[in-house]
Recover the amino acids of this structure.
């Protein structure tokens, strides 16, 4: 999904500053080395020795991504991922795997994980994956903000403007809208103009995109 054309670059920068890379691994040495690597590139990092420790701090507002060991004592990385999915977490997840864990990692990809990386891995490969995850997270956050703003604007419409909006988005022409609602074409044009103004849309494409944002859909859905 493309970003709202009216998105604020300063909001994007603010979102980037609030992002955290969450490293969850029971291997102290690996966890510490990843923290050092990421902090040396200017990324903000938080680390946890277990899935349970991460769940203690998790909230739906968390921004960033997860670097998650697929096998851990207690709750495994896979189990944590499934639990986060059930809680509708949108944080992108990179699994760290051993060679024998690849089939499990493929299963995780099918359940929405971003990617996996096998040990031993090159630092730059990990950094590249993390930057891709953070970019996805920024886009998701921007789309959620755009959706919330579009929904707020939709709620300002009158019932009749709602009807006109739904028919516009469904691809109806003014004459078809007039026939369907039993009103004149001139009245449709007035309602249409008010809808465009209240939705702050300069074109039909922008209007449709705003409605898709509000519905949590993509342009290709």
């Amino acid at each position: 999904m493309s970003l709202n054309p009216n998105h604020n670059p300063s909001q994007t920068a603010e979102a980037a500053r609030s992002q955290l890379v969450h490293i969850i691994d029971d291997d102290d040495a690996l966890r510490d080395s990843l923290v050092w690597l990421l902090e040396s590139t200017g990324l903000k990092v938080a680390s946890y020795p277990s899935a349970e420790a991460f769940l203690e701090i998790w909230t739906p507002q968390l921004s960033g991504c997860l670097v998650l060991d697929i096998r851990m004592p207690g709750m495994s990385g896979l189990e944590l991922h499934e639990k986060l999915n059930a809680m509708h977490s949108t944080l992108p997840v990179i699994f760290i795997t051993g060679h024998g864990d690849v089939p499990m990692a493929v299963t995780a990809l099918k359940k929405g994980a971003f990617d996996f990386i096998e040990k031993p891995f090159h630092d730059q490969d990990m950094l590249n994956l993390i930057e891709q995850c953070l970019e996805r997270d920024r886009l998701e956050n921007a789309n959620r903000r755009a959706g919330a703003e579009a929904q707020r604007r939709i709620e300002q419409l009158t019932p009749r403007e709602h009807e006109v909006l739904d028919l516009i988005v469904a691809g109806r022409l003014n004459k078809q809208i007039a026939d369907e609602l039993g009103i004149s074409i001139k009245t449709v044009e007035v309602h249409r103009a008010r809808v465009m103004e209240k939705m702050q849309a300069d074109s039909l494409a922008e209007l449709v995109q705003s409605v898709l944002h509000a519905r949590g859909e993509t342009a290709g859905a």
